[in-house]
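User: Small ask, check this?
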Amino acid sequence: MDAPGRARLGGGVIATLVGAGLLVVFVVQNRNDVRFDFLLWGFTWPLWLFTLVSAAVGAVLWIGLGVLRRHRRRVARREDRREDRAG
């Protein structure tokens, strides 16, 4: 049983910590430079930097899609309430 006033870690926090730990291990093990070619551009980046940038972009997209989904659901609920009041 938990002591009173003691906070527990939720599933999302645990998943985030595990993911961050795995990302740190990957970064430490993959410090080589890699060449990227995209359309007319070519550049060299350390693999760890590319991995961190990719993870950050993915996280922003994931959060953004969640925000859009919640917004659409909220708008739909408002519309449903208006229809219920109208008749």
